[in-house]
């Protein structure tokens, strides 16, 4: 983005005026006009939201039943191709994407480990979301992580859902099993670093121990794949339907971190980088 651009962001809104025959005043939908209170957009760019289960706030269309939820769904099911025997590790685990990743993995029978930045979030992951293990990465720092993983993931990690990046991730790679899968979803620890437009040279992750032999060559046999949720949007409707069913049945829990007023936009956004949120950050303007 350039200075002066409208900050990007997804909006769940209501049509107040329309010249498009297919879009009626009062229609609800998602659009991406950025941080604005009102916008003129083509009717065709408004994404209709499937009916949400009764009693569920409509803002969930921005979170668990929206882009972050779909990121978790496609990332864990299609990119990581989880199996019930997998041990799954996810970081930023109490956030909008991570909390759904862990719950879907649990629904599919996996053992789930999460990392988050406060004791309260660790408790939330274990007691409310059903994670098998969780730890506070601010106290279990990368130098201590290896020993911690021996305790909480004694059989190694099969699936790594990467939201954060940085030093701790190298330790996770070194604890992965043969045939492991890594979904590179994001790298939030780097987004707000000064000068991140020019990425800092980072030491390469240690060579993963999960190796297979091909002739004289040793090759890692974990699969590492980056992905964008929008690549899977052709399957958006059935995915949302399935997740809405889970929400209705109480199998997929959610929290929202709601801020009030357009003026709170900047503080709400910056709080993502200090972990003040649990679940999706929503601004109710
Ligand atoms: N690939 C895609 O299509 C796609 C789509 C959506 C989102 N994403 C990515 O998914 C990730 C999660 O996004 P989200 O919207 O769900 O955000 P979120 O998890 O709701 O909020 C971000 C969380 O990241 C944690 N965090 C911030 N700085 C950190 C640091 N330096 N080290 C470790 N943890 C840190 C904080 O939790 P703690 O208190 O635990 O630190 C914070 O609450 C992001 O990387 C985002 O870019 C990717």
From TrEMBL:
One of its GO terms (molecular function) is 15-oxoprostaglandin 13-reductase [NAD(P)+] activity. InterPro entries: ADH-like_C (IPR013149), ADH_N_2 (IPR041694), ER (IPR020843), GroES-like_sf (IPR011032), MDR_fam (IPR045010), NAD(P)-bd_dom_sf (IPR036291). Residues 193-212 are annotated as: Disordered. Keywords: Oxidoreductase. It catalyses: 13,14-dihydro-15-oxo-prostaglandin F1alpha + NADP(+) = 15-oxoprostaglandin F1alpha + NADPH + H(+); 13,14-dihydro-15-oxo-prostaglandin E1 + NADP(+) = 15-oxoprostaglandin E1 + NADPH + H(+); 13,14-dihydro-15-oxo-PGF2alpha + NADP(+) = 15-oxoprostaglandin F2alpha + NADPH + H(+). It is an enzyme of class 1 (oxidoreductase). One of its GO terms (biological process) is prostaglandin metabolic process. It holds the Pfam family ADH_zinc_N. Residues 4-283 form the Enoyl reductase (ER) domain. The keyword Nucleotide-binding does not apply. Its EC number is 1.3.1.48. Belongs to the NADP-dependent oxidoreductase L4BD family. This is 15-oxoprostaglandin 13-reductase. It comes from Stichopus japonicus.
């Amino acid at each position: 983005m350039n200075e002066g651009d409208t900050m990007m962001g997804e909006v769940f809104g209501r049509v107040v005026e329309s010249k498009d025959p297919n879009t009626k005043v009062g229609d609800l939908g998602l659009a991406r006009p950025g941080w604005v209170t009102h916008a003129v957009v083509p009717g065709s760019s408004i994404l209709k939201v499937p009916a949400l289960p009764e009693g569920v706030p409509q803002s969930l269309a921005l979170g668990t039943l929206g882009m972050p939820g779909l990121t978790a769904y496609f990332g864990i099911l299609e990119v990581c191709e989880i199996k019930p025997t997998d041990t799954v590790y996810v970081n930023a685990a109490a956030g909008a994407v991570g909390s759904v990743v862990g719950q879907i993995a649990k629904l599919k029978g996996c053992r789930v480990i999460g990392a988050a930045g406060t004791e309260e979030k660790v408790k939330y992951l274990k007691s409310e979301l059903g994670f098998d293990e969780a730890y506070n990465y601010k106290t279990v720092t990368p130098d201590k992580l290896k020993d911690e993983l021996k305790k909480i993931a004694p059989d190694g990690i099969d699936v790594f859902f990467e939201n954060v990046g940085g030093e701790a991730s190298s330790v996770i790679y070194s604890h992965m099993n043969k045939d492991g899968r890594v979904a590179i979803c994001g790298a939030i620890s780097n987004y707000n670093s000064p000068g991140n437009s020019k990425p800092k040279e980072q030491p390469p992750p240690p060579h993963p121990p999960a190796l297979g032999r091909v002739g004289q060559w040793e090759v890692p046999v974990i699969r590492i794949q980056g992905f964008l949720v929008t690549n899977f949007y052709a399957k958006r409707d059935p995915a949302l339907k399935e997740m809405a069913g889970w929400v209705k049945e109480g199998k997929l829990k959610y929290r929202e971190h709601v801020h009030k007023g357009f003026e709170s936009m900047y503080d709400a956004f910056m709080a993502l980088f200090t972990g003040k949120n649990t679940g999706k950050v929503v601004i109710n303007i």
